[in-house]
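lol forgot to send this yesterday, sorry. struct tokens for the thing we talked abt
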């Protein structure tokens, strides 16, 4: 793939990722500027996910694009047919799309596409969106974090970010707990002794 002037899937329209890219592909196709390898997936895969989220068919989105509506006008027309998604729904949509291909049903597809694009050695490409950007010559977006998702998620515990424990915290963490008797690697609850 090469950069054809299509927006990155990360670019947002009215808070939604991918929508702008789908509209760009529809416009490029209508103008005869979309290469055949892109045309094969029009209305499928990510396009289908996006149309389903909007609550319309892909053909309705194509119709609105061909009528010359702006990106925001297309969204408004789609929302008027269904309902306007809440901020929480948009957040879930974005999170789903941003992580697509990372340890999910699309992982196998991601590996296959990386192979086809000659990007198999690019370990920073962990999602479908990152693959699209890399294949089109854009630097892969670092996802939600400043580096690998795996590195950052390993630092998330209980919904809050934290640093690895200091040596003092480590000593406290592994210090014997009062009321427990340590016997080798096993710990057993000590029964309280009755004192007279």
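and heres what i got for the seq, position by position
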């Amino acid at each position: 793939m090469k950069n054809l002037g299509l927006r990155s899937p990360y670019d947002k329209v009215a808070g939604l990722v991918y929508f702008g890219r789908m509209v760009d592909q529809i416009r490029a196709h209508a103008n005869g500027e979309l290469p055949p390898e892109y045309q094969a997936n029009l209305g499928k895969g990510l396009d289908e996910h996006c149309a389903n989220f909007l609550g319309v068919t892909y053909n309705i989105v194509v119709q609105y694009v061909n009528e010359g509506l702006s990106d925001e006008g297309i969204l408004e027309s789609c929302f008027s047919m269904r309902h306007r998604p809440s901020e929480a729904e948009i957040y879930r949509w974005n999170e789903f799309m941003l992580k697509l291909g990372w340890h999910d049903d699309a992982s196998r597809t991601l590996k296959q596409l990386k192979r086809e694009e000659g990007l198999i050695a690019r370990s920073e490409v962990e999602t479908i969106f990152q693959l699209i950007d890399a294949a089109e010559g854009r630097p892969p977006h670092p996802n939600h974090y400043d580096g690998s998702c795996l590195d950052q998620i390993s630092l998330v515990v209980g919904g809050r970010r934290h640093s690895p424990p200091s040596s003092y915290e480590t000593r406290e963490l592994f210090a014997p707990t009062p009321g427990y008797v340590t016997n080798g690697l096993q710990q057993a609850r000590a029964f309280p002794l009755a004192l007279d």
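Residues 12-144 form one domain. anyway ping me if u want another try
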